[in-house]
Amino acid sequence: MSPYESGVNADGSGKIFYTTILTLNQLEHLPQVLSISYGDPEMGLCTGFTGDCNTTFNSNEIYIRRTNIEFMKLSMRGISILAASGDAGANGFGFEENCTNKIFYPEYPGACPYLTSVGATELIDTEYNNSEKLPRACSVIIPHSNRNATLAHCISNGTEVAVDTGYAGFTSGGGFSTYISQPVYQKRAVKKYFKLMKCQPPPSMYNRRNRGFPDVSAIGARGFYVINGTYQIWGGISMSAPLWAGIVSILNSYSLKRTTKTLGFLNPLLYKMAEECPKCFNDITLGDNKCPDATYCTSKCQGFQAARGWDPVTGLGSPNVEQMIKYINRLSKKKKNYL
């Protein structure tokens, strides 16, 4: 694990977000990158779905407002925070069977404006690299398998799309916060999205003037990992957010060498990067987040569509790390403020 990366473990229910971030803000020494793979519906933090808020807060909105302040404090200390946008599409974890709900249930803290919200993608039409000089991980055999099935392959090419229920069993959380206003850093990108994409869910289901999420995305299906010597396949946005945390750690190392500073709060930089360096992102234009999961997926399900530029399915897109490193190096040479 990089010295600039760390994971925050919590049980994902209401008051834990506030108490965890509050505790972190009281520490003198903090990791430079935090990754959060937990979330709850904004409207279920204090009532309804989870009912586990601290008694100090008597409404979801007050709880979110207070917790956002703690996230903002961390960001002001130069900490980069990545959070999963959710695994239940635009409908969120508050969805009713067959998508009969009248509103969307955005996920928190994925919709918090003081952290970077991460969605998920997958690869289709893949081509496999069959070179003899590939790492061992490219030809791992499932232990005790009657068929000696290969667990992992190294992909050499494919088309990256928004993660889909048919392949991964879930869609990328995304949409617009119920309570949080739209931050300045993303206003231009969101405006372009609605200008380009005229066909949208009923306006009564969400508030397009509020915080849009995710900000970015990364592969979230068919990930390969080893734990305690056992090979496993892993997926979910709980995979995408840590991937981004690792990438930010790499970018931090370049920034530290040139400026002695970390990147800190990422979002203003990321939206600026997307405008000045389109090649820094793999723009995802295929897919949607209508279905909450593979079980409840009908024609009634509403959601958003991936599009050119930012969209509430995959954000600005997935990272092109090589181009991002070049961009950070160019900025540091010009002695520009990242924000």
UniProtKB/TrEMBL annotation:
GO BP, sorted A to Z: proteolysis
GO molecular function, one term: tripeptidyl-peptidase activity
UniProt-listed InterPro entries: Peptidase_S8/S53_dom_sf (IPR036852), Sedolisin_dom (IPR030400), Tripeptidyl-peptidase_I (IPR050819)
Organism lineage string: Eukaryota, Metazoa, Spiralia, Gnathifera, Rotifera
Positions of the Peptidase S53 domain: 1-331
Species this protein is from: Didymodactylos carnosus
Name of this protein: Peptidase S53 domain-containing protein
Note accompanying the cofactor annotation: Binds 1 Ca(2+) ion per subunit.
Secretion signal span: none
Keyword Metal-binding: yes
PANTHER family, per database record: PROTEASE S8 TRIPEPTIDYL PEPTIDASE I CLN2 (PTHR14218), TRIPEPTIDYL-PEPTIDASE 1 (PTHR14218:SF15)
Co-factor(s): Ca(2+)
Keywords: Calcium, Metal-binding
